[in-house]
Write a structure and sequence with these properties.
Helix Hairpins; 3 helices
Amino acid sequence: MIEIASDISFALLGVGVALTLWRLVRGPHLADRVLALDMLTMLGIGVIATFAVRTATSLYIDIAITLALLGFVATAAFARFLLERRAE
């Protein structure tokens, strides 16, 4: 049962990655691209978490948490950059 659920999860996450990459390339504004990068980070966390459940290894959860923290800091830095750029 876990294998079927994880296969479905990987397929849906793959569709999400494809659509997000399309938005990253196609995005008309820099804010769209930043949001797409943040979404790619979240989808990557989903892939790692799904792999952790499938392999029953808790080490991958630690990696996903670390990636989430780095993604948050990167998004905050991009937002600050966009605000400073708009102020000029």
